[in-house]
């Protein structure tokens, strides 16, 4: 995604159903979470934007923004991604205020995107649960953060892979100038 779109950095995106999972056999590049495709100028899975307990990180030309409740989003944007759970809101940890799956509550490799003003944080952390990941972002100085996919899906590219790629991904967060 990064090189194909003329970007300089990127990381894995939302949760999806990988074909190497038994329950996902026969599905190809499937994901239910909304992702704004900046190149096409449209939402993928827009109808799922209104699910409860999902958070959104987006860019609208004036900067990066976070909303704890993606189903309240109604503005314009040029980039955006929705996932679960939100990690930080206004500097406070919120990851524990959402129902977490067993995988989210257990220790493992997790990833996320955070912001503080115009600073963007891309984090991959090993042997953490969601609360740990939220505290990693908080300790770095982020004021808002969103969990992304983890485990075998983690990938971070900046002039080459720093982590991953673990598997083929259906979407990613990329940064271009």
Kindly describe this structure:
This protein is mainly β. The protein contains 2 helices and 14 strands. The protein has a 5-stranded antiparallel sheet, with no helix packed on it.
The geometry reads as: globular
Rg, Cα atoms, Å: 15 Å
Strand line-up across the major sheet:
3-2-6-4-5
Number of helices: 2
The first-to-last residue Cα distance is 15 Å
Q: Mean of the pLDDT scores?
A: 91
* Share of residues in strands: 35-45%
Strands, count: 14
The major pleated sheet works out as: 5 strands, antiparallel
Kindly summarize this structure in a few lines.
This protein has 177 residues and is mostly beta strands. It is built from 2 helices and 14 strands. The model has no long low-confidence stretch (mean pLDDT 91).
